[in-house]
Each structure stands twice: as structure tokens, then as C-alpha cells.
């Protein structure tokens, strides 16, 4: 099972860098996990709640393979439907 991420960094400067591809970028934020996909970014995060999603759903390269705006819809893992489950 994958890591559940409760916050995603949406800092525009961080997102302008290449993807970490899920390697590193996981930090403890408010007692839960946050993830910043920007490779060279370890400070000045802009945390947005995800509602609890799997790490794979936040990696940009995987999103691009699914096409365009195939983003998650934030909701709690307990209420996730099939579209929100990690492959």
C-alpha cells in the first residue's frame, strides 16, 4: 500500500522545477504527510489539503501520462471511489 498524503505543495516556483517522481519530497506537516513534487524545493511550501490521497496521484509525470487535468478530487481515503485508488 502506498503512502497517504494529506497536503500537497502548490508553490508555483516549486512546480516549475522537474518532478521528484516520488523520491523525496515527503515531509511531516501538521502531524500528517505532505508532498512537494518540485525537485529542487525544500522551503517556502504552499500547502493545500488533499483530503488524503495516495502519493502516486500527486506525481506530475504520472498525471501527464493520463492526459491533461487528470487530477484527484480531494476527499478522505475512506470515501474514495475506484478513480481515487492507486493502481
Architecture blueprint of SSEs:
Layout: E1 4-9, H1 12-15, E2 26-29, E3 32-35, E4 47-54, H2 60-66
Parallel strand pairs: 1-3
Antiparallel strand pairs: 1-4, 2-3
Could you characterize what this model shows?
This protein has 87 residues and is of the alpha+beta class. It has helices at residues 12-15, 60-66; strands at 4-9, 26-29, 32-35, 47-54. The protein has a four-stranded mixed sheet, with no helix packed on it. Strand 2 and strand 3 form a beta hairpin. The N and C termini lie close together (10 Å). Residues 63-87 have low confidence and may be disordered.
Integer-rounded radius of gyration: 12 Å
Which structural class do you get from the secondary structure elements?
Answer: alpha+beta
* CA distance, first residue to last residue: 10 Å
Mean pLDDT metric: 74
Q: Biggest sheet, open or closed, and with what strands and sense?
A: 4 strands, mixed
**SSE ordering:** EHEEEH
Give the number of helices. 2
Strand content: 25-35%
The shape is globular
State the total count of DSSP E strands: 4
Please list the strands of the largest sheet in the order they lie side by side. 2-3-1-4
* Helix percentage: 10-25%
Unreliable runs: 63-87
